[in-house]
């Protein structure tokens, strides 16, 4: 299966980076190389570092950018980008792009185990290394599973689903995506099963986030990206659910916050100055035209800040 990923908010994201022909840019989540290719086309003497932790993505983006001498492809998690860029002597940089979340290839490729629409081994590891979703559902206590489902899936039925998983695995190990999806479906109230969408959606999201440590990596990646931006450099981040967006929104707000003295102080004594400014106050959402072409983009949000 070819690694294809249709980038969401594509034109808006590339425009937001204000790419200079001689600039240095990092695509921290290269995927199939859509964003990287667009950046590379705009470079003359500049450099582009494309990073991804998925070996399938690395093969795809390497092939796609093979004719661009400005391109360097490196397998790593985007949270490690500062170390990678320093190792390759590419700091400071003019722009960083992060397209957070699972790609269409990963969702649609059954063998990766991200989706409840196809039967496949219960995996969900973006890097294909480490603890899998199968490991979690077969070893954690119901309390630990409930916490993951509640925190990362924001599912009010987390306790019932977790206990249903424990009960099912006492009969036999939970090995596949459809096996787990049916267990979840049987563990929620009938009213929930009648609601639009599959009742397993939030649990699958929660397990994927837990398996890949996504929120911790996002927090680390934001700090890493901002640390290597030069003044005037831009950080563009696309998120796909509220947990990710909240982290990005709050981190960028903290960089943009200046004086924190009480308003009744006649002069500033804290000495704090903003480190960045927002390009879009509320971020950008997909257009109606894009939503028609790609329904998966509905929850996407683009936030961009400029380092001062």
What does this structure look like?
The protein has 308 residues and is an alpha/beta fold. The chain has two domains: 190 residues, Vaccinia Virus protein VP39 (Rossmann fold), CATH 3.40.50; 91 residues, DNA polymerase, domain 1, CATH 1.10.150. The chain is built from 14 helices and seven strands. The protein has a seven-stranded mixed β-sheet with strand order 3-2-1-4-5-7-6, with helices on both faces. β2, α3 and β3 form a beta-alpha-beta unit. The N and C termini lie far apart (43 Å). InterPro entries: RsmH, SAM-dep_MeTrfase_MraW_recog, SAM-dependent_MTases_sf. One of its GO terms (molecular function) is methyltransferase activity.
Please name the defining characteristics of this protein.
308 residues, alpha/beta, Rossmann fold, DNA polymerase, domain 1, 2 domains, 7-stranded mixed beta sheet, 14% strand, globular
Helix and strand arrangement:
Elements: H1 10-16, E1 24-27, H2 34-41, E2 47-52, H3 55-64, E3 71-75, H4 81-87, E4 93-99, H5 104-108, H6 133-139, H7 142-153, H8 158-169, H9 177-187, H10 190-193, H11 201-212, H12 214-227, E5 229-239, H13 242-256, E6 276-278, H14 288-293, E7 301-307
Parallel strand pairs: 1-2, 1-4, 2-3, 4-5
Antiparallel strand pairs: 5-7, 6-7
Short description:
This protein is α/β, with parallel strands linked by helices and 308 residues long. It has 14 helices and seven strands.
CATH architecture term of the largest domain:
3-Layer(aba) Sandwich
Oligomer class: single chain
Helix fraction bin: 40-55%
How do the strands of the widest beta sheet line up side by side?
3-2-1-4-5-7-6
